[in-house]
Amino acid sequence: MRIRIVFLLKNRGGFVPFHHQYLLAQLIKGLLLKGGKKEYVDFQDYNFSGLKGQTKISRNGLHFYSSRVTLVLASGKKEFLDYFLSVLFTEKQIEVGNLHLTPEMAELEAKPDFEEEMKYICISPMLIIPPSLDYRESKKFINPMDETVSDLLYDSTMARMEASNQFPAEKFKDYFKFQVVPDVNYIRKINESQKKFARIYPAFDQDVKYEVRGYTFPFTLYAHPDVQEFLFIHGIGHFTFKGFGMLDLANHDPSKRTTKYHHKNIEERKSTPAS
Description:
Blueprint: E1 2-9, E2 15-16, H1 21-35, E3 46-48, E4 55-58, E5 61-64, E6 68-75, H2 78-88, E7 94-96, E8 99-109, E9 117-122, E10 126-127, H3 135-138, H4 148-164, E11 178-182, H5 184-192, E12 198-205, E13 208-215, E14 219-223, H6 225-234, E15 247-249, E16 258-260, H7 264-271
Antiparallel strand pairs: 1-6, 1-8, 2-5, 3-6, 4-5, 7-8, 8-16, 9-14, 9-15, 10-13, 11-14, 12-13
Helix pairs in contact: 1-2
Domain CRISPR associated protein Cas6 C-terminal: 111-249
InterPro entries: Cas_Cas6_C, CRISPR-assoc_prot_Cas6, CRISPR-assoc_prot_Cas6_N_sf
Organism: Mangrovivirga halotolerans
């Protein structure tokens, strides 16, 4: 399931680096450690977006000018999401980069009807090549139109689905169909405008810094509905628990796909007078 966490922004104009997934990963990890439950210390069954709001780009990164900022968090385990919210909503204020944020509410995204053909956009960068200390390898550029893109993403997806223990072994024979078809018009327009859909990003794991190439381009995925649902929840590619590879449906109004997410700590926060 996927939830949207809404924060009040206390300092409009505050900023984060253009790519701030590593800051969010540190925040989430810190809250999980603070919560104290051992089963979630090394938990990796989650995926998250970048922060969303009204932004302007400067030399320092993304400046936020909206009164609220949103983070999408997804996991195959509802228990984890409830636990994370229970810890998050004990915080009066958190800081991400230069932003001062107060948790306000959470919304539940409606589950889409998954079909064999789905159109997606990337709401966080997608890692096609696994992180490596060999920066030449992990930063290597692959043309999205190259057939190896589908092959690499298929291999990583099947490995993650198998490791999740959510799918019987005999089902994998049904998952052979897998093709990623980038939006050719989008890539052409980006190239013509000399903008980028592939950048180098920092990522950290076990205090080790990696430099990785992330891609953000819309694409159509042809795959079994089970595979579509898995990727929509767990993200696509590598380092998904570090906030890479989160997808959203293309050409959909996200505001029409949410309902209020009820959680004890959120309700208690709202009923407590501000000090």
